[in-house]
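To whoever picks this up:

The nightly regression suite flagged NAD(P)H-quinone oxidoreductase as changed. Nothing in the input moved, so I suspect the structure step. Input below, exactly as stored in the fixture:
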Amino acid sequence: MTRDTTMRAIEIRAVDGHFALAATRRPVPTPGDGEVLIRVHAAGVNGHDVHQIHNGGHPILPGETDLPGLEVSGEIVATGAGVTRWRPGDAVCALLRGGGYAEYALAPQGNCLPRPDNLSWAEAAVLPETFFTVWSNVFVDSALAEGETFLMNGGTSGIGVAAIQIAATLGHTVFATARGADKAIICTHLGATRGIDYESEDFAEVIAAETGGRGVDVILDIVGGDYLDKDLLALAHGGRLVFIGAARGFVTPIDLRKVMRKQLRVGGSLLRPRPPAFKAAVAAALEARVWPHVRSGRIKPMLDRSFALEDAAQAIRCLQERRHIGKIALAVVEG
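Regenerated output under the current build:
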């Protein structure tokens, strides 16, 4: 167990009528049943953090913290009752229920994965949230099967970088949209058969041309808004569309005839409310199916930049301004 009793952390405070991040000190948490305590080396920065900050937090469920941060890498320093796999000293990356913006964080044992030796702490920290999200939505909910094709809308986002690499590495034909020709090319370097510049190309028309009019089987969309209609056009008969974000708006009209005629499935999800058993099953699948490719270097996190923990507000601004490709991390331990 760590000898520290307090820790550096970043919390959300009300300042002049709005919410902002501020440095603070908090007690080091104690692991409960089935939990591990991680000495955090690095933390990932995600869109959920932005929403949490702007809303002044979110409803705190039992066992959760008000501190932001959904993913970290670090060293386990203590374990709670019932933890069977992990021991103090193990290097892991983990999906959290919050609290990653701190020197110590709690994680359910089933949400931890071994840190790949070929990755830095910061690179490992930005894996869990995107990899859990991609696997749960594309390979579990949408059941992308052998021989099926996949479209990622938002190809150079953190989710997009992970989705393209995972789907392509597992043998699927992948298409991806991105803003600008340069980013479309990055998508092809990641493994997409075709990167589509949505500023100059209609992605539904490109998909039709590339697939002989058939369309793709699964679309993962973080854009929302007016992309919905084009998504429906781009899907093959029996295709599946899942929304996990809505950068262009949550409210948009839908022509249900397009859904019914092609027997499409349209849905959406959030990762945080998923039950613990589901997340543990996703972690096990990732370790079996994806982690060997991460360790070999075939699948690589794309870390755009890192900020010091105390500069978390700058990291959030960078994410909001969309000046990054891939992921942003916070360095909690120097080096």
